[in-house]
Amino acid sequence: MNVTSVIATYNRKKFLFDCVDAISNQTLPPVCILVVDNASTDGTREAIVEADNFDLPDFTYLRLDENTGGAGGFHAGLEWALRRHDGWAWLMDDDAVPEPDALENLCRHALDPSCVYGSVAVFHENGRKKLCSPAEAVRRRTEGYLEYLDSLEPVEEVARIPFLGFLIHRSMVERIGFPREDFFIYWDDLEYSERVKRHGGKLFLVRDSIIVHPVPQITTFRFLNMQVAYRSLPPWKIYYEVRNKIVTSKEYFGASLWSKTMPGIIFRLVLSLLKEKNPGGCLQAFVRAIRDGLTGRTGKRFLPPG
């Protein structure tokens, strides 16, 4: 198969080198590795020049003029790939480390260009491989979200796939367009998954295509006699996570925006005010995100400090 690997990176050169090394040593290597650099300031460009393009036969480094976030990076990467290569694009973040046979196992099942196939991003927990993002199995909804690798079918149809081993054919990209660069970060992959389904495609996780990924920073605590899993984020990240969730829910989920999405956001706001060290900043981020999400104002509107 003709596969271009697209990696979006920003200020994580050590992770990036591990990712590129893992991809270049696949049992079925891609025809091209493209690194999209969101204007990193940590010496990424200099490190790549010094590495002499990793000594790979077809390696491309694309540096953007400004930080467009992961969403903008994948938009630019897919656009570049479609101009130069036919076939498939394999998207992932710079801190992903695919196992040596990840791409080969993925391609073995990628038979329908109208569908999207995904590697499974995992971390190790008590001797088991746990999914970084729990999978919502389409044909097993009564089981809820699947959290462990060994609970997946060999090829499992799911509701959405994150940009961590996301394999899509150029014909589908031509049909649905590119990821929404105006999202900046968060929910760009979930919105893209919904767009695939709206255009008749299905999404499948391939159990034997494994990517090792850092453990999500999640804490668990008691709240009103419930055990709650909570991911701590700084205010600027809260803004994009909440805003883009509202925008996506408005577009694809109809009335559940008010019955599920907004109540969940308000609950998350309460937890943030209780847990975070900067509750005032979090409150400001939630208010701005809710306002902009409901009015459809997107783009890079809340900048990180520094």
Verbal overview:
- The mean pLDDT is 92.
- The protein has helices at 13-24, 44-50, 69-84, 102-109, 170-176, 188-198, 235-252, 256-275, 279-295; strands at residues 3-9, 32-37, 59-63, 88-93, 97-98, 116-125, 128-136, 145-148, 155-157, 164-169, 203-212, 218-223, 226-231.
- With 306 residues, it is α/β, with parallel strands linked by helices.
- The protein has nine helices and 13 strands.
- It has two domains: 3-212, Spore Coat Polysaccharide Biosynthesis Protein SpsA, Chain A; 218-295, no CATH class.
- Strand 7 (128-136) and strand 8 (145-148) form a beta hairpin.
- The strands form two sheets. Strands 1, 2, 3, 4, 5, 6, 7, 8, 9, 10 and 11 form an eleven-stranded mixed sheet that branches. The chain has a two-stranded antiparallel sheet with strand order 12-13.
- The chain starts with a strand and ends in an 11-residue tail after the last helix.
